[in-house]
Amino acid sequence: MNEASTAALWLGSLELVGALVFASAGLLDMCARGRSAAVRRQIWALAIAVALVLPLPRLALVTSESRLPGALAVGLLAAWASGTAWLLARLVRGQVLARRRVRRATSIAAGPWRETAGELAAGPRVELRACGSARTPMVVGWLRPVVLVPTGMLAAPPAERRALLAHELAHVARADGLLLLAGGLARALYWPNPLAWWALRRLRAHAEDAADDAALHTGIPCSSYAAQLVAVARAQLERAGRVAADGLRARVRGVLDVRRIRSGAPGPLGWGVPRLVGAALVLATMVTACEARSAERSEVAAVNGAVNAAPSG
Q: Can you say how many angstroms the Cα of residue 77 is from the centroid of all Cα atoms in its chain?
């Protein structure tokens, strides 16, 4: 039971430090309200990366000597493991269903969509596929992302086609698929903490806003793009209900807000995945070192207090 108690205490301290990471990101996000959506998205991307690598340096951290009752420790670990397993299963299922949809889609090797993608894509050639089950254009996959185009939109006007593709290619250029997957993993790891769920929602919202900015960067008027968002989302709203409607309302307000600072065309991967992971490792190690130093000082103070309290002679 000692092992279970130690593991439960270590996990509890990890959840607490993770909450501080997400809370700090939320505070930075509030302070950056005057910055572009791409900058605010990067704040949450870094916070999620720190949360994911945080367990690595903490493996060497000595846990407290206090013990939890064995039954309580086992129950807490079982509850955490059950929630994590359920969320990971949902994540895997979503990836499998998305890949299945890609396999059933038809490749777009030529035509207006292919030509527009060639004009907009600054990086490697992006694969396009026509999908009958898709209700809106979407990016599937993160290692070799594929842009799925609904078959009902293949005859879309040039301006609408260009704006929709610019939005999806911005997701590809910034590796949003990989970041959202990392956000899902962080939510599974820190699921008892509501801030982990909030972090994923904020990352997704800022990623969509940044992609909208990229679409507007192509020259389409804000009013026309807002009308496109409403038209594309109408079928989804009938099925998804209020939550999707609230998200759409926020995006439309952001598109029509002439005071908002907008990012330009996205560069390849933003910071880049290696830099993001490296910065996350440095920050996680610093947080763990500060925590270890604080614990060491507390232990020294406790020992000194015990020595001073001991009777002399």
A: 25
Mean pLDDT of 297-310: 47
Q: What is the dihedral of CA 105, 229, 208, 165, to 10 degrees?
A: 50
Q: Taking 70 as the threshold, does the pLDDT of residue 303 lie above it?
A: no
E strand or H helix at 24: helix 2-31
pLDDT band at 117; cut points 50, 70, 90: confident
Tell me the C-alpha distance between 46 and 53, whole Å: 11
For the chain, the distance separating the N- and C-terminal CA atoms, rounded to the nearest angstrom, is 40
The pLDDT tens digits for 187-231 are 999 999 999 999 999 999 999 988 888 888 877 888 888 887 777
What whole-number distance in Å separates Cα of residue 55 and Cα of residue 58?
Answer: 5
Q: Are strands 127-131 and 138-140 parallel, antiparallel or unpaired?
A: unpaired
Alpha helices by DSSP H, listed for 217-272, are 222-240, 242-256
Confidence of residue 141 (pLDDT cuts 50, 70, 90): confident
Q: How far apart are CA 176 and CA 38, in angstroms?
A: 11
Three-state helix/strand/coil letters over 101-169: HHHHCEECCCCHHHHHHHHHCCCCCCEEEEECCCCCCEEECCCCCEEEEEHHHCCCCHHHHHHHHHHHH
Confidence of residue 144 (pLDDT cuts 50, 70, 90): confident
The partner residues of 148 in beta bridges, in order of sequence, read 129, 138
Alpha-carbon distance 300 to 304, whole Å? 6
269 φψ region: left (φ > 0), alpha (ψ -120 to 50), beta (else) = left
Distance, in Å, from the CA atom of 154 to the CA atom of 226, rounded to the nearest integer, reads: 20
pLDDT tens, position by position, 185-196: 999 999 999 999
With contact defined as beta carbons under 8 Å apart, do 29 and 203 qualify? no
